[in-house]
Amino acid sequence: MPQILPTLPQIAKEKKRDVLMITFHDYQSLCPEPISPEMSKIRSEVITVLESKNIRYKDAYPPLIIGTLAVLYCGSLYIDLEVNESCPTYAFICDYLEGAASKFKTLGVTLICLPLSHADSFV
Q: I need a labelling partner for 64 at 20 to 30 A (CA). Which of 19, 20, 73, 97 fits?
């Protein structure tokens, strides 16, 4: 069933804070490819870890350039955590996805932080 998904900037404005997202594609591409079966498995693995750590998430679009009419949804997840380096859960997510031992760095999985101050620059 079709859904209207929020964009990361919309979530930042709603939450009135910096926000996080995990993407499973080249989120800066104007014409992203559909999520591949391999990347879908990786996404499921990430979701399992988020759920095991009781980290809330939801489907959302990455920041879109103003004037974008429609974009294929490629599995991006908004992560409902405050951007706070002293928070153990935030530190875990950063290390899990971007740490030296992380397998995700080379697989096309990206952790995005969108500062609230930049939210108006995007849709």
A: 97
Structure tokens at 86: 């002293």
The confidence band for 103, taking pLDDT boundaries of 50, 70 and 90, is confident
Residue 2 lies inside a defined structural domain of this protein = no
105 in helix, strand or coil?
A: helix
Q: Which domain holds residue 61?
A: 8-121
- The answer to whether residue 1 sits within a structural domain is no
Highest mean pLDDT among 25-29, 48-52, 100-104: 48-52
Integer Cα distance of 101 and 24 in angstroms: 19
pTM of the full structure: 0.89
